[in-house]
Amino acid sequence: MTIDQYSLCPCGNGKKIKFCKCNEHFPEMQTIHRMITGEQNIAALDRINANLKTTPSEPWLLAMKCELLLQLNELESLEETSAKFIRLQPDNPLAKLYRALVAVVRGNTEEGATLLLQAIADSTETLPPMTATVAVNLMEMMGQRGMVMPALLHAEMLMDMGESMARIAAGAYESLIAHPQAGTLTRESLPSPLDADDTPYTERLAEVQALMANYRISVAKTKLESMLREFGQQPAILQHLLYCQLIFTDVESGASTCRKLATNASLSEPQRIYYQALAYDLSPRSSGVTQTEELCVYTIEDPELESRLTSSKLMMPLPVEQVKGLLQAFLDEEVPPKAAFICTEPVLQEQFADLEALRAGSWMAFYGKQTDKPARLVTLESTSGYRKAMLDKVKSELGIQSLKRELIEQLHVAYISKTNNPVMVRKQVPIERRDALRDATKQLTMDDVLDLQLECLGKRSARECTGLADSRLALQALLLNWQSHNPPGMDDSDFRTIHKNLQVSQPSISSQEDVFDLVGGAAYYWTDLDTIDARSLIQLMQSALTRSVSSMFGELIRRSEATQWPEDIKLSAEYTTLNLKTRIATEPVEAESLLTRIIESGKKLNLPVGNAILERFELLNMLERRGEARQFLESSLRENPNDPVLLQFIQMAMMQQQQQMAARGRGGMPGGMGGSIGDAGASPSSEPASGLWTPDSAPSQPSGSSGGGSKLWIPGAD
Length: 718
Prior knowledge:
The protein is an alpha+beta fold.
């Protein structure tokens, strides 16, 4: 890439070089640019540093130095230079972007988001290319930290910023709505604020909206806070403030605003339930939906303890890697534990004693005696519920209850982590008993959750709140939040039964209303499906499929099969319904048959079917129909030469084969490749580890984003 007088000035002010005051340095700028494009980065950096000695505040030099340091991955130097850049050029968008990137890398999402928004607001007609780098890395960091809704708001904002930025934002958006750990409520945008016409604050709110439209979010937030002091807790003001707080990644304040909206009588009951449930997701601890667990250490002098741990029928070995990170963080231990175990107890003994069904509880890690430290046992201890009782039994058997207990850390764990307590079985489950085991396991999990004592319910359990008016809304919100995480094996009928047993209603909103605009992601669970029209139904089905709203799949399938589909969407409806059925299939044979039909329907609709092909290939292998699997894959590759997922699969398989051939050449052991692409261990979702995202990086795609993803239920599996 060349640089000329009509190129954008590297200083970041949005002007072309010819019209920028940096033009007087154009010859030197060209020289440094040629060095960079010639990959003489170190020499270019030396030349920039030499220039900065004589002109230390030149923005184009500081900008080019930041760019080079980023390319060289010199984070410490980038932090120092970006600090100088923004100090000398406080209104320069590029200076803010580099400073924002450093903040993101350091884990400060709030500062990163604030600076990014300021840079966008300060930019002229053209956004600096660096905007995309900062935005994507910020959204990636937010996603990793569970701030999915703030990241989603950023993606939606970027979609309005030109074609190239919209493409990048769309890729991020697709990944976020398929985020596997986030609840449905945080993977849908916020509802629209209430209409504030004919109110004393109408004009002031219009000013706020204009500021937000121009990305002056900080100023808008300050005005909203002033309006709250003057006009009180008005819902329209609070709703605008919530957006500002979340786009700045201030989830604690966002949760507080949600709780205020939940108590606002101006809102309908469904809206109040929604905001309370959203608060539970945004900040579980401050919203009162956490359980306390304690990380403790016992000093061990008994040399027989390790053998008792190993031989105990109440303990099961646990891979050390699963607890190593937590122990390093809280104990500052570089040396990993010698062994780790998880507590177990027999369950479902009346019906399934012969299957040896076990439920898992807390874990322990054993450190052998070291030169400067005695032997120790580290435990993660629940303070209530069956996990506490289970651990007490284990401690009694091991003889450690009388030992000195050192509390290292109190951990506040979101209740939602307790809503999927898998049951493991040691014996093969006969086909005719699988449904009964599944139902018994589900009931066990529901009983556990309903007996959790939570602060949001006044330190009572959901069962203890049955019929109590003072905890009604909190209980409804808790049930919505639980369902929004789509726990495996549970469907809408289960949650309706729970509502009935706890004597609380579940909202049902007419499909004639814009339900998503009213209650956001709660629309998946509260839309009245009995009155929905065909076109709205297929949109809801497709959106639920994309977001894996699994608890509603059964109801959506029921409604789909009862619908007379218009001819122009009949095939799409069939394809979508098949995908829903596949996602809740409980048997591999059933899933394989459905995938065959999905592939046929997808081809009729000219849709890519690569994911479905690979999933059917894997299922055929699992069913030990290996010859059929190989033949199916080879024919599918011939018939779908341009399918992006299959092309990626071939690329990964060839890369793996080349690596194994190279390993053989070095005398290494061959891997699992048998010389045929049908045996490849490559996965279409395999991606190399990466650091910072840059605009030339390939956009990541969420796994299972196309039709054909199946969730097979196995006892003890998540």
